[in-house]
Backbone:
């Protein structure tokens, strides 16, 4: 048991080596097998920690190497070990078939190394027990992600995306280093346990600063607004099974870090911490889904939806902080459980959707939804899996998204118990924001599925699209099962997550009475629901509707014929709803957010404007964050850099002067200091 | 809004008493009503198709729904899509441009797919016979159950034709 994690790490290393040594199919197979094996062993370790409810020191063999390398899985980290396994096994399986199309075009060895390295660093991040180890693993994860994004390195958008990603990640990294320095009192090699005790003696101002730094540092990786700009650029350009890992797991590990600091290491924070997290979460949730609605690029749409879901997780985590500061421990635990459950649920369904989008990309060579259509006939398996993922993402019962968002809602509605009117008001506004985001997400996924898979094909590539090979379908199938299981079994999973939550709490709070059995009841008795009853009712209702249609049909026969199109002569795919047109009403409603740019130009016959030669229509959304936040920032950086460049005169004399002046300054400072 | 609703509430349904132009009409309408209830268990849904008429026939058809004949009282209503229709009322000679749409409309109509061809043109192409723009009478394009003669036929004649078509099923 203890060495399960050591085996996991060793297997990842074997996976990296085999990627370099073996070629072609053997290489792809070895990479997939090692990645799947390693992550499933990691998940097994996680499950055993959650079931036993005890913290387990892991990989003692590694600590023998160096005493500083202490790995440990406590229940909170274990949840994320499980998440890594849930997503990485199907993604690795899928990657076996998917990476075949990369053969000869890009380096398969690099892809295999990156996949296993990413998993290795993810595992280290969630089991690290000291800041220095955590930061090392964190940076490794960032760089592995950077290499993954750069897989298709000869394309301009890829390079741009990777640059943004690595820049914002490192700003975040800097924030994390400073945050750990503040919390640990300057000693990065202190253990998390020492930090916990040290934090108790820190002033509220220092703790508040550490909290804000953690929010910024982890938020940069999780993709919270306004630090999200890189995410919709970087996640789509990575190979699809890596996109699934980036969106399904890597952003969750940032949530792990945020929870580790704000709920565990920094101690019980004041209510304003939670308020800030709630506010940013609400803005991210609504902003993410609003932009997801407008995307034409299927994978970019999914990436924006990740921003939305990170927002939801942040809302839940913020609510936990608020409840704890008011002493409502049961609700705090419910919020933490909701956050963790949403992390699992989103990890699984978003990975499924990314793999589905990858299959479409594999079949058509395009990510542009305006090129798709009619794929449900040509790719029945992929479309069924994508539909399942979309239903889960739209938070419809009885799938995983519904179960998790239901819990988030229950927690927020529990805000009525807060004595302060401000606290209750914040909670109800957050619940409203969550409801709005949920409704928009449903619209977004109706559009994503409908435009992509239904109707007539809009391009030749979609016309001749083919179903994915078996390994890719198997990967999607596993994740689809995961969506169903997470939707039907919250009453089994929640008590395990509650262990993680009480581990985080660690302040003697009793395990909340999340009732077992078929129904799931919130601890405070606010409400309950039974996913099984719900699923049965839905099935029965569907059967009843089908039967009654049969019976009401009367004595007449059923006949298949073409879609009624007002008797037009030609009925082509150009007459269908386009992705842009489908989103147009919402674009008008939210015009003040999108501030769309539209340009219509008409070419007339020179003699009469009744004869139109050509109409061109172009439209784009103003990227408000880029325009009002990043462009000025980049401009300022550039101006400063130009000034600084004057120092670089190229003259040796000047440099000698700088050196001696610096030495003088340092000596003076040292003199004054002591 | 409130005043609108209160007016609807206060006024209730207002219809003129039915005053048929001739004695036959009432008998025909009642018969249609009874027959559709028997055959379909609900009102009769009709889709009108102008296959190239001079619109004289359409004037008479719209008379059917007017206050004098008031066919909707008797469970006859005109619908916007052949998907919702039990019966097609086709007028005029079939022009070249309407041949395919007429075929498609027939194809899109669910059973019992009754077709009543209204007006002399529908049977003989009338004054348009021999024109280069004409394909032929309605029955050269789709199967017709009943022809209604007249240029244009009276609403009573059209209703009699509708009844005849219903009686064939
Ligand atoms: S039958 Fe007479 S009224 Fe009807 S379309 Fe022909 S010409 Fe016009």
Residues:
């Amino acid at each position: 048991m203890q060495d399960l994690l050591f085996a996991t790490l060793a297997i990842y290393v074997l996976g990296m080596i085999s990627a370099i040594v073996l070629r072609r199919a053997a290489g792809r197979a070895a990479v997939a097998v090692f990645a799947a094996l390693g992550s499933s062993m990691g998940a097994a370790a996680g499950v055993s920690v959650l079931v036993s409810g005890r913290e387990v020191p892991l990989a003692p063999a590694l600590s023998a190497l160096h005493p500083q390398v202490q790995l440990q899985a406590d229940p909170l980290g274990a949840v994320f070990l499980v998440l890594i396994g849930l997503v990485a096994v199907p993604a690795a399986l899928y990657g076996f078939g998917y990476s075949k199309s990369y053969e000869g075009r890009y380096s398969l060895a690099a892809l295999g190394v990156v996949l296993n390295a990413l998993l290795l660093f993810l595992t280290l991040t969630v089991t690290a027990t000291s800041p220095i180890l955590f930061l090392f693993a964190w940076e490794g994860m960032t760089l592995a992600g950077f290499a993954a994004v750069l897989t298709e390195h000869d394309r301009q958008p890829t390079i741009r995306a990777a640059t943004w990603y690595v820049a914002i990640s490192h700003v975040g990294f800097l924030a994390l280093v400073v945050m750990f320095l503040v919390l640990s009192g300057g000693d990065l090699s202190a253990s998390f346990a020492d930090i916990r005790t040290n934090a108790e003696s820190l002033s509220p101002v220092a703790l508040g600063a550490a909290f804000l730094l953690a929010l910024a540092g982890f938020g940069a990786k999780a993709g919270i607004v306004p630090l999200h700009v890189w995410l919709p650029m970087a996640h789509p350009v990575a190979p699809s099974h890596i996109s699934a890992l980036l969106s399904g797991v890597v952003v969750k590990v940032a949530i792990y870090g945020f929870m580790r600091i704000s709920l565990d290491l920094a101690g019980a924070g004041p209510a304003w911490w939670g308020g800030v997290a709630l506010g940013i979460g609400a803005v991210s949730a609504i902003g993410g889904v609003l932009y997801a609605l407008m995307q034409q690029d299927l994978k970019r749409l999914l990436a924006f939806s990740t921003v939305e879901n990170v927002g939801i997780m942040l809302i839940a985590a913020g609510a936990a902080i608020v409840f704890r500061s008011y002493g409502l421990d049961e609700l705090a635990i419910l919020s933490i459980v909701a956050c963790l459950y949403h992390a699992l649920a989103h990890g699984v369904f978003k990975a499924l959707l990314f793999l589905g989008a990858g299959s479409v990309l594999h079949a058509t060579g395009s990510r542009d939804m305006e090129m798709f259509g009619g794929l449900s006939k040509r790719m029945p398996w992929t479309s069924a899996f994508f539909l399942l993922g979309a239903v889960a993402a739209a938070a419809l019962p009885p799938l995983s998204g519904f179960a998790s968002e239901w819990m988030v809602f229950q927690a927020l509605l529990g805000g009525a118990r807060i004595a302060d009117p401000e606290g209750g008001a914040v909670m109800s506004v957050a619940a409203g924001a969550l409801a709005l985001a949920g409704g928009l997400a449903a619209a977004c996924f109706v559009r994503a599925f409908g435009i992509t898979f239904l109707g007539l094909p809009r391009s030749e590539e979609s016309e001749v699209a083919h179903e994915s090979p078996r390994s890719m379908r198997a990967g999607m199938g596993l994740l689809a099962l995961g969506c169903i299981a997470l939707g039907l079994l919250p009453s089994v999973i929640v008590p395990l997550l509650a262990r993680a939550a009480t581990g985080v709490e660690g302040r003697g709070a009793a395990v909340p009475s999340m009732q077992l059995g078929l129904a799931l009841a919130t601890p405070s008795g606010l409400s309950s629901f039974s996913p099984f009853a719900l699923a049965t009712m839905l099935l029965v209702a569907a059967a009843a509707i089908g039967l009654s249609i049969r019976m009401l049909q009367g004595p007449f026969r059923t006949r298949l014929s073409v879609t009624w199109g007002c008797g037009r002569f030609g009925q082509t795919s150009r007459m269908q709803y386009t992705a842009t047109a489908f989103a147009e009403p919402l674009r008008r409603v939210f015009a003040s957010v999108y501030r769309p740019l539209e340009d219509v130009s008409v070419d007339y016959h020179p003699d009469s404007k009744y004869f139109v030669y050509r109409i061109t229509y172009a439209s784009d959304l103003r990227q408000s964050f880029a325009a009002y936040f990043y462009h000025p920032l980049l401009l300022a950086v550039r101006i400063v850099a130009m000034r600084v460049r004057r120092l670089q005169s190229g003259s040796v004399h000047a440099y000698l002067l700088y050196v001696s002046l610096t030495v003088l300054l340092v000596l003076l400072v040292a003199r004054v200091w002591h | 809004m409130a005043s609108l609703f209160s007016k609807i509430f206060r006024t209730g349904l207002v219809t003129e008493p039915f005053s048929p132009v001739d004695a036959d009409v009432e008998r025909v309408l009642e018969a249609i009503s009874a027959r559709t209830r028997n055959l379909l268990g609900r009102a009769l849904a009709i889709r009108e198709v102008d296959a190239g008429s001079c619109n004289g026939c359409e004037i008479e058809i719209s008379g059917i729904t007017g206050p004098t004949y008031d066919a909707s009282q008797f469970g006859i209503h005109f619908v916007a899509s052949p998907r919702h229709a039990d019966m097609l009322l086709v007028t005029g000679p079939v022009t070249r441009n309407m041949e395919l749409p007429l075929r498609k409309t027939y194809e899109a109509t669910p059973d019992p797919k009754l077709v009543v061809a209204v007006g002399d043109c529908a049977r003989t192409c009338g004054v348009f016979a021999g024109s280069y723009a004409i394909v032929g009478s309605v029955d050269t394009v789709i199967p017709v159950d009943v022809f209604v003669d007249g240029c244009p036929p009276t609403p009573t004649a059209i209703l009699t034709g509708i009844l005849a078509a219903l009686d064939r099923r």
Notes: The first strand of chain A starts at residue 56 and ends at 58. The two ends of chain A are 53 Å apart (CA to CA). Confidence is low (pLDDT under 50) at residues 507-513 of chain A.
